[in-house]
Amino acid sequence: METGAVDEASIDSLTDFYLGCGVDGMTILGIMGEANKLTGEEARAVASRILKRVDGRVPVVVGVSSPGLDNLSSLARFAMDEGAAGVMVAPTPGPAVEDRVRGYFHQVCEALGPDVPICLQDYPQTTGVPISVETILTLTRDCPQIVMLKHEDAPGLRKVSAVRNRSGTSETPRLSILCGNGGLYLPQELARGADGAMTGFAYPEMLVEVVATHQAGDVERAEDVFDAYLPILRYEQQPGYGLAVRKAVLKHRGAIACAATRAPGPRLDATDEAELMRLIARTEDKVKELSHGS
């Protein structure tokens, strides 16, 4: 809302919007949005509302990263009790020392217990903590709870190849790889063995179609669909500013009622709005042309 209050009605409509676009899973309270601006009570209320709205139709992963292990564990247990399929955890900021990262995730797994599936979020551009392929594979072997990699390292295509080629062996369990960064590199990540996308974009139907078409073997069609959305996808990924863009597009599409970000946050001016509306119109025209040509 314009006041900064949590808009419960828009939480419901946004959840319905993503489900209506055909997603087969959701991640909430992640890094791309405004989860870091919520109080602990608000985070629980938002998670509970979305999980109840989804009502088991698709699996929901809840981001629970926190500087404190007690806070992380508390939110994770709450999310699982409310029906989450698993939780997402990023390393805590600090020295980029492999032993420290491994030790931290061992602590997380011990605190959460063996029954909580964990998605390891690898996003060094935000956390400041790079995670090597060796550490990812070691944690996959040592911690059975870690079943998914949220890949957001960039450049990171070689990392996708390495994790895919070296997991799912007699030594290392297969690790599901879902990719973020707004989907900027999605076709290439899929070609290197990623299982799909796990990211925010105001046109989630593009991500759904690209993944499904690529997995069906029509790589050229998948890239054509991706290319039609690329200008607005790129525009939405501007650091610091992209959140306001995404919310403006979601409002334009009827998914939410208000595009305001919680303070302090970016806001579009009249020139920004006009620029974005032109991009939306061009994107929708390209998508229509692509559909007519299929």
Automatic annotation (TrEMBL):
Family (UniProt): Belongs to the DapA family.
PANTHER family: 4-HYDROXY-2-OXOGLUTARATE ALDOLASE, MITOCHONDRIAL, DIHYDRODIPICOLINATE SYNTHASE
Gene3D superfamilies per record: Aldolase class I
Annotated protein name in UniProt: Dihydrodipicolinate synthase family protein
A GO-annotated cellular component: cytosol
GO MF assignments: 4-hydroxy-tetrahydrodipicolinate synthase activity
SMART domains on file: DHDPS
UniProt entry keywords in alphabetical sequence: Lyase
Keyword Electron transport attributed: no
InterPro entries to which the protein is assigned, alphabetical: Aldolase_TIM, DapA-like
Protein residues bound to pyruvate: M198
